[in-house]
Amino acid sequence: METRKSAVPAFGVLEGVKVVYSAIEIAAPSAAALMAEWGADVVWIENPRTGDSMRDTSYVKETERRNQRSVALNPFNEEGRSILLRLIEGADIFIESSKGPVYAQRGITDELLWQHNPALVIVHVSGYGQYGVPERVNRAAYDLTVQAYSGYLAQNGTPDQPMAACPYVGDYFTSLMVVGSALAALQKARGTGRGESVDVAMYEVLLRIGSYYMVDYLNGVPAYPRPGARHQNLCAIGEYKCEDGFIGLCVYGVKQNKYLLERIGLGDLWGTEAYPEDTSALWLNGPSAGLIERKLDEFCLTQKVADLEKEFSDVGIAANAVLEFDQVVAEEHLARREAIVEWRTLDGDPVKGVGIFPKFKNNPGRIWRPMPSLGMDTDVVLAEAGYSSEEIESLGSRGVIKSSQAPSELRPDSTPAKA
Ligand code: COA
Which of residues 278, 295, 321 is at a domain's end? Predict the structure, then answer.
C-alpha cells in the first residue's frame, strides 16, 4: 500500500504504517499510542466541539497522546464521513471505539470502508462487542463495568469485598489486544490485499486474560474464595508485613520450600509424609498450611524488608519489597534503562512519564513530539489526503472540521531524563 507523504519522522518497527483512530479515553487510544511510539503515523480524530475527554486529565494524557496528530472532525455527518473515507484511503489500520455497532448504525460500515480501501484493517473496540444481546451490545462501558461483567473483578479483593484491579486494567489489557490483533491482521492483509474487521469486546479481553481459575471452575473445580493479600491456594505467596514495610513473596519450588520451612523454624516438616523432599508447592489445603502461614507472618514481622529481599533472592526465592512510587523512581535499574523520561509539552513545560517499551535493539521507538492541541494537524493531514487550502478553509468555516489553530511544525526531540 502506498504510504502517503507525512510529517512523521522515519523510525521504529512500524515506520510507514498509517493508523487513523476515532476514540476517547484509554482503551483504544492507548493502542494507538503504543503504535505511535514504535514509529507509526497516528492520526487522532477528535470531536471538534469537545475534544477527547482525556484532555481533562492531568498528566497522563501527555504520555497517552504523544507522537500523534490531532484532526478535529465529526465523521457523523455527510461531509465529515467523506473526509474520514479519504483519510482511510491512505491508511493501513482504522480503530474506533463506541457503544457497540454505532459506526455501522450511522452508515460507516466495514463494507463502505473497504470500498475505499480493500486492504484496510478495521478494529472495533466496545465493551461488549458488535453483536450479541442487543441491550448488552449498546451499553456504555468503562474498565470497572467490564471487569464486573467478565468475572475479573469478582476474583480480586477480600472474601467480603470484591475490588477492581487497578489502574484500569480492562482498558490497558484491551489496548494490548488491539495492537496485537491489528498488526496480526495487517500482516495477513499485506499478503492477501484483503482487509479485516476485528471485533474487540473489552469484557472478552478480560475473560481471556482472567481465565486461569475460571478454566478450573469450568472443569468442575469449585471456585476459590477471593484471595485478599494472599494466594488463593498456595502458602507463602502474597504480600507480607515486615518490620518496616511490605514484601511480595512467591515461594515456589523444592529448594525454596525447604529453605523457607527451615528459616521459619519448621524444618522438621520437611521430608515427612505430608511434605516429602520433592515438594514443589505448599498447598493451602496441606495439613500444616495454617501453621506455615502463621510462622511466616511472625517471622516477617521480625525482618527488615531490604534484608529479607536480599536473603531470599540470594537463595533463589522470588521476593521483592513492595515499592511506593518514590522508591520505584529512585531505582538505579530504572535509570540505567531510561524507564522514566522527560520531554516538553507543546507549551514548553517539562513533563515526565514512562519511556518507550519494549526496547527494540535495531529499530528503537522514540518520542518525536508532545501531545498536539485539539485539531492542530487538521489542515496538514487533510492536505496530505488531497484537499486544497480553499476546500479546507471552506470546511472549517462550515464547522465540518476545526481548522488548525496552531502551526503544525514539529517540536524538537525529547531528551531522556537525567536520573
Ligand atoms: N465528532 C463528533 N461527535 C462525535 C465524535 C466526533 N469525532 N466522536 C464521537 N462523537 C459522538 C458520539 O457519536 C456520541 O454521540 P451520541 O451521544 O449522539 O451517541 C457522542 O459524541 C459521545 O461519544 P461517546 O464516545 O459515545 O461518548 P460517551 O460519553 O457517550 O461514551 C464511552 C463514552 C467510552 C463509555 C463509550 O464510547 C464506550 O462505551 N466505548 C467503548 C468502550 C470504551 O472504549 N470504553 C472506554 C475505555 S477507556
Answer: 321
State whether 132 and 251 are in the same domain. no
Q: How many CB atoms lie within 10 A of CB 53?
A: 12
Mean per-residue pLDDT, 318-325: 98
The domain total for the chain is 2
Name the grid cell of 34. Answer: 503504543
CATH number for the domain spanning 157: value is: 3.40.50.10540
130 lines ligand 1 (CB under 6 A): no
pLDDT in tens, 266-298: 999 999 999 999 999 999 999 999 999 999 999
Residue 216 covered by a domain: no
Statement to judge: residues 58 and 117 lie in one domain = yes
Q: How far is the CA of 382 from the centre of ligand 1 (A)?
A: 23
Out of 99, 103, 128, mutate this one to test ligand 1's pocket (max ligand atoms within 8 Å of CB): namely: 99
pLDDT single digits (tens) 216-237? 999 999 888 898 999 999 999 9
State the distance from the centre of ligand 1 to the C-alpha of 178, rounded, in angstroms. 18
Mention every residue, 6+ apart, whose C-beta is less than 8 A from residue 356.
37, 38, 341, 364, 365, 366, 367
Say if residue 358 is in the same domain as residue 406.
yes
**Ligand 1, pocket-test mutation among 46, 47, 381, most atoms within 8 A of CB:** 47
In this structure, which residue's CA is closest to atom 39 in ligand 1?
Answer: 140
Which of 25, 98, 136, 168 maximizes ligand 1 atoms within 8 Å of its Cβ, making it the mutation to test the pocket?
98
- Ligand 1 and 25: CB distance under 6 A: yes
- Return d(Cα 41, Cα 411) in angstroms, integer: 16
Cα atoms found within 13 Å of the Cα of residue 416, Cβ hemisphere only: 13
Cα–Cα separations (whole angstroms), residue 325 to 63, 238, 242, 271, 332? 17, 20, 19, 42, 14
Domain that holds residue 202: 18-209+339-410
On whether both 204 and 99 belong to a single domain, the answer is yes
Shared-domain flag, residues 135 and 273: no
**pLDDT band at 411; cut points 50, 70, 90:** very low
Q: How remote is the CA of residue 140 from the centroid of ligand 1, in Å?
A: 8
CATH number at residue 288: 3.30.1540.10
Task: Write out pLDDT tens, residues 36-63.
Answer: 999 999 999 999 999 999 999 999 999 9
Is residue 26 lining ligand 1, measured as CB closer than 6 Å?
Answer: yes
How far does Cα 363 stand from its chain's mean position?
A: 21
